[in-house]
């Protein structure tokens, strides 16, 4: 359900939103009454305990955004028996013909290889493109998943814990890279310091509700403790 509020002149265009929406899975309602508006140019970090509904909300956003959204799922969504190159290439499968995709599977297209090599280099994956993904470390697999989303070249980056398996310094570098290439991002994270440092707006979820929705510069890590308090 999309909110149809009047947009004030000078207000960034709304990209996606929910107006008293019910979100969940089959018989399991995760958000019984969710109202949220996301505008162009926002960089949003979604925080909250495991199982609180971050992926559920990202899925609903993806459905609204369609081919505007570059999707970076958790690293285990890669195809393990294919090479890093082919997993990244899959980000743009729909852009090429079936015939081109088939040929590329056997013999990588030179232009695609060059573009993906350059992208892989910025992500510290040089030399690993031919390696099967299940022979990469967890952090390397995560960078392949990010590369695949960046290769989609879509306006909005939607990431489900894209830096969960890397150290904080590398996480910061990867988030910078994502921000450089995407004006608008919505990313689920567990690292609150990274959220405060790299995003403009923090949305904190708990118990089927948004309990924090504030500019990052107004919050401290302690303000986010409430999201992780034991039951
Ligand atoms: N396919 C599904 N069918 C039914 N319930 C589901 C399904 N996927 C998730 N859930 C439930 O919905 C709730 C929210 O799950 P979700 O995956 O959105 O949480 P999350 O915050 O992304 O968790 P995590 O940080 O562990 O990835 C959980 O209670 C989960 O068990």
From TrEMBL:
Q: Does the keyword Nucleotide-binding apply?
A: yes
Which SMART domains does the UniProt entry name for this protein? AAA (SM00382)
Q: Tell me which UniProt keywords the record has, alphabetically.
A: ATP-binding, Nucleotide-binding
What domain of life?
Answer: Bacteria
Q: Which InterPro entries match?
A: AAA+_ATPase (IPR003593), ABC_transporter-like_ATP-bd (IPR003439), ABC_transporter-like_CS (IPR017871), ABC_transpr_LolD-like (IPR015854), P-loop_NTPase (IPR027417)
Q: What molecular function terms (GO) are annotated for this protein?
A: ATP binding
Q: Where is each ABC transporter domain found? A: 15-229
Tell me yes or no: is Ribonucleoprotein among this UniProt entry's keywords: no
Checking Pfam families in the record gives: ABC_tran
Q: What is this protein called?
A: Phosphonates import ATP-binding protein PhnC 1
Organism from which the protein derives: Kushneria pakistanensis
Q: What is the lineage of its organism?
A: Bacteria, Pseudomonadati, Pseudomonadota, Gammaproteobacteria, Oceanospirillales
């Amino acid at each position: 359900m999309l909110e149809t509020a009047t947009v004030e002149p000078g207000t960034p265009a709304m990209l996606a939103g929910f107006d008293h929406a019910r979100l969940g899975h089959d018989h399991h309602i995760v958000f019984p009454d969710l109202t949220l508006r996301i505008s162009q140019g926002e960089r949003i970090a979604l925080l909250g305990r495991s199982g609180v509904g971050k992926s559920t909300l990202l899925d609903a956003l993806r459905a609204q955004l369609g081919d505007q959204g570059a999707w970076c799922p958790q690293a285990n969504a890669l195809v393990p028996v294919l090479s890093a190159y082919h997993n990244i290439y899959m980000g743009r499968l729909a852009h090429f013909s079936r015939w081109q995709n088939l040929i590329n599977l056997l013999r990588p297209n030179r232009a695609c290889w060059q573009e993906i090599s350059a992208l892989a280099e910025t992500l510290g994956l040089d030399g690993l493109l031919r390696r099967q993904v299940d022979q990469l470390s967890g952090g390397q697999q995560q960078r392949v998943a990010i590369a695949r989303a960046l290769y989609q070249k879509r306006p909005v980056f939607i990431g489900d814990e894209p830096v969960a398996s890397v150290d904080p310094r590398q996480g910061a570098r990867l988030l910078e890279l994502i921000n450089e290439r995407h004006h608008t991002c919505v990313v689920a994270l567990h690292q609150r310091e990274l959220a405060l440092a790299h995003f403009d707006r923090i949305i904190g979820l708990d118990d089927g509700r948004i309990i924090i929705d504030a500019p990052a510069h107004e919050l401290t890590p302690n303000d986010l403790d409430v999201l992780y308090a034991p039951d």
